[in-house]
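Researcher: Sequence recovery benchmark, item below. Answer with residues only.
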C-alpha cells in the first residue's frame, strides 16, 4: 500500500466520521425515563401536628409502553387516619390519556403482621382505583389520580370514607385503634398503567397533589420535581452514529501511523 493511497484513505475516513458525527448530533434525543416529585407538610387536621412526607416516581422505561408509578409515604409512623396517604393527583401537558390500571402491589401491615406483595386489585372491589368521574371535579384541579378511598371521585375504591389500604410508614407511638387494627400498605405501593400514546413524554407530568385521609379537607400538599426528567439520553440511532465516529477515528489513526512508518 503506497503512502499516497493511505493518505487518501485517511482523508475519506475523516470525512465519513464527520458525516456520522453530524447525523448523531442531529438525531432526536429522548427524555429521561423517570421523574420524581416529593412533598412535605404537617397534619393539623387531627391536632397531632404529625409531620407528613411523600414522594411519587413516574417511570415509562421499567415496563415498555406503560407507566410505572411508585407512591411512598415518607413521614413518621401514623397516629390517626389523617396520617394515611390515600391519593395522588397529577396533570399531563398533552392530549388527554385514557389510562388503564393493570396492576397495583404493596406490602400490607395489619395488626403488626406484614404480608408481602399483596395484590391491591384483588379481592374485588379493587383497593386502589383510577377516578370513575372525569377530572377535574369536586374541588380537584388535576386531571388524573389514583386513590384507595372514595373522595366522591373513586367511589368503588377500597371503601368510601375508609382509609384502609392507604399507605403508612408504620405505627406511631400512641397510634389510635383505626391505625393498629386495619390493613394498610407498608411504606409504598407500585402501580402499572397502560393506555399511553406513542408520543408519551414522562417529563410532561406536573401539578402533583398528595392527599391524606378520606376527605379533601384533610391534609394535602403539592410535590416538587425532586429528580429525573431533565437529563437527555441518546436514542439508539444516535449511539450507533457515535460508534461509527469512534471506529472511524480509531481506524484513521492506525492508517496515519502506518503511512508515517
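Model:
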Amino acid at each position: 500500500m503506497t503512502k499516497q493511497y493511505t493518505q487518501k484513505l485517511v482523508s475519506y475516513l475523516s470525512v465519513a466520521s464527520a458525516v456520522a458525527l453530524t447525523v448523531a448530533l442531529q438525531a432526536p434525543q429522548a427524555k429521561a425515563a423517570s421523574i420524581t416529585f416529593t412533598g412535605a407538610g404537617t397534619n393539623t387536621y387531627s391536632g397531632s401536628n404529625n409531620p407528613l412526607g411523600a414522594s411519587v416516581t413516574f417511570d415509562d422505561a421499567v415496563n415498555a409502553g406503560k407507566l410505572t408509578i411508585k407512591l411512598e409515604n415518607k413521614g413518621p409512623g401514623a397516629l390517626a387516619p389523617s396520617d394515611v396517604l390515600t391519593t395522588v393527583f397529577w396533570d399531563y401537558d398533552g392530549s388527554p390519556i385514557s389510562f388503564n390500571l393493570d396492576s397495583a402491589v404493596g406490602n400490607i401491615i395489619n395488626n403488626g403482621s406484614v404480608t408481602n406483595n399483596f395484590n391491591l386489585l384483588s379481592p374485588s372491589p379493587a383497593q386502589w382505583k383510577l377516578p370513575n368521574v372525569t377530572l377535574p371535579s369536586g374541588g380537584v384541579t388535576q386531571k388524573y389520580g389514583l386513590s384507595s378511598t372514595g373522595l366522591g371521585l373513586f367511589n368503588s375504591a377500597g371503601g368510601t370514607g375508609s382509609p384502609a389500604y392507604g399507605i403508612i410508614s408504620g405505627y406511631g407511638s400512641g397510634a389510635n385503634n383505626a391505625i393498629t387494627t386495619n390493613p394498610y400498605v407498608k411504606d409504598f405501593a407500585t402501580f402499572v398503567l397502560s393506555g399511553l400514546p406513542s408520543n408519551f413524554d414522562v417529563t410532561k407530568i406536573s401539578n402533583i397533589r398528595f392527599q391524606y385521609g378520606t376527605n379533601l379537607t384533610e391534609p394535602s400538599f403539592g410535590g416538587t420535581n425532586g429528580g429525573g426528567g431533565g437529563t437527555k439520553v441518546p436514542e439508539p440511532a444516535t449511539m450507533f452514529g457515535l460508534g461509527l465516529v469512534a471506529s472511524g477515528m480509531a481506524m484513521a489513526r492506525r492508517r496515519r501511523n502506518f503511512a508515517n512508518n
